[in-house]
Batch of 2 targets.
Target 1
Amino acid sequence: MHRLTGHKRIVWSVKFSPDGIQLASASFDFTMKLWNVADGKLVWDNKAHKETVVDIAFSQDGKLLASTSDDKTIKIWNVAERKLMKTMKVAEHVQAVAFSPDDKSILTGGRDKPLIGEFLQEIFGASKFNPGVSARLWDVETGALLQTFSSHGNDVQDVAYSHDGFWISTASADKTVDVWRLNK
């Protein structure tokens, strides 16, 4: 149907809006773009991140879009107004994001250790004896950190919510998947 061109480097992530009208893309060129699916036109070229935009996620109602970046931020955007709503800062690269089914929280995953820990991990491999913070649960409205998860011995590559919102899951480079029960 369309080939969407405009990114200058590797595209890391694409996500359809819940209504299927728009498609968001995130790239190594530090941009996040929003496209009209019907005609392939670029409708928003977001250059707010200072480093690679690694992952993106639409809220279930399609009103919000979350972006994660190597600039150690998670940004939440109002899609209709194309306006920044919140920025959350973290100590490491963030490479995965998902909205809860009720759109009240987001789950993020990424590197599990600071730079020296990542260096040692490259030399010695993943270690359950030295877990780092590899996933975080955030309040969308306030941007407050609600909970951290530190059971993996390596980076979290992806995160997910169950459809009922009672469970979350983290997928790690340590070759494991963790499932967590949320208290509601």
Note: The chain has a mean pLDDT of 89.
Target 2
Amino acid sequence: MSWPQDGYAPPPVKEPASPRARIAGIAGTLLLLGGISVVGFAWMSQRHAPQPSASAAGIIGPALGRSLPRSVPVRVDIPAIGVDSKLLHLGVNADGTIQVPSLDTDAELAAWYKYSATPGQVGTSIIEGHVDTLQGPAVFFRLGALRPGNTIDVTLADGVTAVFRVTGVREFPKASFPAGTVYSQARYPALRLITCGGAFDYTTGHYLSSTVVFASLVSAKR
């Protein structure tokens, strides 16, 4: 499966950029989770994932306050929708498209895009996950049910848990996805959670939209 392309350059990191990081910047890779579910669960059962309501649109940010030093994330916990997942660390494929968790073995796991900011750093951190598979709901099946005020806990490798508060939940057509809004470098510690959403195209076997959760850091704990 491949992602649509657009003008997304990964945020800079302190260490020298790897070849794959440079590929991601040159290719302008855009993480839309396009075609993240083949014809399967949605087609077979007609059970669809929750979609964001107009009342949940909220705001994108910013929020002012503390930030955290760079530390890679190892786990994400979203109590409101029952998500508790180890985080994979994924980059880009050889052709510059973003890697996604395997539908066969890792559909129940979310993934942090390793060329984005680490959660809690000033900048935009990206976590993505599948909405469903041939067998049923995947890790982010209920992402669209989140509402402003819900919390997202991201455990970091240094033992700190970064606590984010959802500020908005929105659905964007993939054909007109606002890459600048979703992926641009925030001037505060921002988190974006992304999965498929909207109508399901039975001809192509893909969802026509993406569900995006916008959140900002509010605290940290050990």
Note: Helices lie at 19-27, 41-45, 179-183.
